[in-house]
């Protein structure tokens, strides 16, 4: 690789590190009971992350589509460690990931938050926002909201979030090894353009952070202009202080003026910089009482039946929007309304079902969700070829299965719903998510062990 003209290696050994082969790593979904392989090489700062010896064809692994793991660079998994430290012994936290797509850092944060936390994930680019929505649905955490749009909208939401993460758009120096296009696009002018945009994003979202809250700033680039200079800008313009993360020396992370740099060659991962700041003031006491959901429409079918499909139904309110039955945490209904009045919301809570005439069709989001009650539907375990056919949205035939809605399992974990008609079963996998490739390997890639998913 030839480094672009004008690029300066600000760290010793960086030029050599950029010539090394990039690593491959994944992070298990602890919320679905998945853990790394017994002999896995673990990511030092993330107990649920581990390295792979080679990059398999992830597309052909049903476990990835089941949300049992997420393919993520090891350096980016540091957000799991940081959020875990911030959230320790705390409850009812609210987190914003302001530049969230495709969702890796969001899901890493989710796994480190208490179960009663609420997460808002925003993305500016519409196509990337749809990918974010898909990945968060598959991850299955029920207390989420996905929004699309400019971060300027968050300036209207005063003191809402306990934690704000901003993995801001950057010049992409940390991706030089993996993405040749990043090398081609880089220029000193791009660095300056990004630095201006990064300050704008900070200014937009800072008001939404509560007093005493934590701001996690990160980029996938090395230069001081987009990292240390932005942190200095925040310190100069806002009442806050840098939080010393005190990473263990054996992690080989470099600290420079409040920023922590992950340098290829020193760490087994790509380039990343992260800084943590604490906003001045005290959080203060607050509480949100459960409220009854307002009636959105008069459905032609009794949607209360959906309560039989979810765990802890008394903790959730069911609302109907555009013939979709949505479960919202009862103690977050007021917050969701406030967010919905300000943001362009793509998804919230858990879509439990779609109303079609007098029928309630269980949604794929329910199959993926941690809210799914294990005995709500008849289940059928299918083999790998059938699982791939399902993910390609082909017709499925089930032997000796009851009629009606069936939850398909692969390796003991939910794969999705079909409606069994006897001789055939209608495939209910989302059309836009289907695998387009006609190729089917003889066997699935082994990333997580057989049976490591959530058993029903």
Automatic annotation (TrEMBL):
UniProt keywords, alphabetically: Cytoplasm, Methyltransferase, RNA-binding, S-adenosyl-L-methionine, Transferase
Show the active-site residues: 220
Q: Does the keyword Transmembrane helix apply?
A: no
- One Pfam family, short name: Methyltr_RsmB-F
Residues in SAM-dependent MTase RsmB/NOP-type domain copies: 1-280
Q: Can you cite a GO biological process for this protein? A: RNA methylation
tRNA-binding: present as a keyword of the record?
Answer: no
Database matches in PROSITE patterns: SAM_MT_RSMB_NOP
State the InterPro entries in the record: Methyltr_RsmF_N, MeTrfase_RsmB-F_NOP2_cat, MeTrfase_RsmB-F_NOP2_dom, Nol1_Nop2_Fmu_2, RCMT, SAM-dependent_MTases_sf
Gene Ontology molecular function terms on file? RNA binding; RNA methyltransferase activity
Question: What's this protein's family per the entry?
Answer: Belongs to the class I-like SAM-binding methyltransferase superfamily. RsmB/NOP family.
Q: What is this protein called?
A: rRNA cytosine-C5-methyltransferase
Naturally occurring in which organism (per UniProt): Muribaculum gordoncarteri
């Amino acid at each position: 690789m030839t480094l672009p003209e004008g690029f300066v290696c600000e760290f010793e050994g960086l030029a050599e590190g950029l010539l090394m082969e990039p690593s491959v790593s994944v992070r298990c979904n602890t919320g679905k009971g998945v853990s790394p392989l017994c002999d896995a090489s673990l990511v030092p700062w993330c107990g649920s992350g581990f390295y792979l010896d080679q990059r398999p064809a992830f597309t052909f692994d049903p476990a990835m589509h089941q949300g049992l793991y997420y393919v993520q660079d090891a350096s980016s998994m540091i957000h799991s460690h940081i959020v875990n430290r911030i959230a320790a012994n705390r409850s009812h936290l609210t987190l914003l990931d302001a530049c969230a797509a495709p969702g890796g850092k969001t899901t890493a944060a989710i796994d480190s938050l208490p179960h009663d936390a609420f997460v808002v994930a925003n993305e500016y680019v519409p196509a990337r926002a749809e990918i974010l929505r898909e990945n968060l649905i598959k991850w299955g955490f029920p207390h989420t909201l996905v929004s699309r749009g400019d971060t300027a909208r968050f300036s209207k939401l005063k003191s809402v979030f306990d934690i704000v993460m901003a993995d801001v758009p950057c010049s992409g120096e940390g991706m030089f090894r993996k993405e040749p296009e990043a090398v081609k696009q880089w220029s000193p002018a791009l660095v300056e353009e990004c630095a201006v945009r990064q300050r704008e994003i900070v200014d937009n979202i800072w008001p939404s952070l509560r007093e005493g809250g934590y701001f996690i700033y990160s980029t996938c680039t090395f230069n001081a202009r987009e990292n240390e200079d932005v942190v200095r800008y925040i310190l100069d313009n806002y009442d806050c202080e840098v939080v010393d993360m005190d990473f263990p020396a054996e992690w080989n992370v470099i600290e420079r003026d409040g920023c922590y740099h992950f340098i290829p060659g020193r760490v087994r991962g790509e380039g990343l910089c992260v800084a943590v700041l604490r906003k001045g003031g005290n959080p203060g006491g607050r509480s949100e009482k459960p409220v009854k959901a307002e009636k959105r429409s008069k459905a032609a079918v009794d949607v209360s039946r959906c309560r039989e499909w979810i765990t802890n139904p008394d903790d959730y309110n069911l609302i109907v929007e555009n013939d979709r039955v949505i479960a919202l945490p009862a103690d977050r209904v007021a917050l969701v309304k406030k967010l919905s009045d300000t943001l362009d919301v793509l998804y919230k809570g858990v879509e439990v079902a779609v109303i079609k005439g007098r029928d309630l069709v269980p949604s794929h989001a329910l199959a993926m969700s941690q809210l799914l009650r294990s005995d709500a539907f008849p289940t059928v375990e299918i083999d790998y070829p059938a699982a791939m056919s399902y993910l390609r949205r082909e017709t499925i035939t089930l032997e000796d299965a009851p009629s009606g809605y069936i939850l398909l399992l692969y390796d003991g974990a939910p794969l999705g719903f079909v409606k069994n008609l006897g001789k055939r079963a209608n495939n209910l996998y989302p059309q836009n998510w289907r695998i387009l490739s006609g190729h089917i390997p003889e066997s699935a890639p082994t990333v997580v062990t057989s049976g490591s998913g959530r058993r029903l």
